[in-house]
């Protein structure tokens, strides 16, 4: 796809310095619009369970949770912080807080599945077959909803009580919440693909959307299997390897990875820390650890 040319270590900084500011600005915008969409989705799920919280409070909880995910092993601290945050600040029972977050993740699996199929278009010569598989997969999820919920809980390594499981199952009948949740989740993943597209364009690379989808899925999988805080080291190495596998020169692969991780890890960690320290999150975390 590209000429097999390298870029020396000394030139990495030069490559990044030459990134057009508007591409970086748009990449940052897509990331933080995604955070707001996550908060809107969370608010809808909470409403479906008869609870509510201010949108701005949910945004702050998510930003602080990103910081916790980035500094704790297996990226597990963030979800605990989100549960404690809205339970303490909005008087929402812990069980409902946990179920709302689990249900969010279940809703997100559907657009991730679709994104996976889009990525497979890069390798497939029969897109019609992938379309049929996609329709059949979504239909199977809906028909076997309870089995899908149980499988999701196992995959997410989450245990819930019988009452909490019943709450999750009952949400299936809230069609407006499910539809909006899936649409919002899809928008988040579209923005994720758009961010990667903007970052590659910043270096003058015009990659197909199907290839960007493959890279996005690889990034997701790397984050799921990473055991280091925020996936540091593992995600970077895996992303560079993925990019070079598809013919992108090593120098560009490293530069793309550095810029992507600056947006999704470095800057998000700093923003999350500021939110945690200035919005009472530190007290929430201390209360959580004392349990």
UniProtKB/TrEMBL annotation:
GO cellular component: plasma membrane
Primary location recorded for the protein, binned into one broad class: membrane
Keyword terms: Cell membrane, Membrane, Transmembrane, Transmembrane helix
Domain of life of the source: Archaea
Transmembrane segments: 20-40, 106-123, 129-149, 177-196, 202-227, 234-256, 262-281
Membrane topology: Multi-pass membrane protein
One Pfam family here: LPG_synthase_TM
Keyword set includes Acetylation: no
InterPro entries according to UniProt: L-PG_synthase/AglD
UniProt-annotated location(s): Cell membrane
Database matches in NCBIfam families: flippase-like domain (TIGR00374)
Family: Belongs to the UPF0104 family.
Protein's name in the database: TIGR00374 family protein
Species assigned in the record: Thermococcus piezophilus
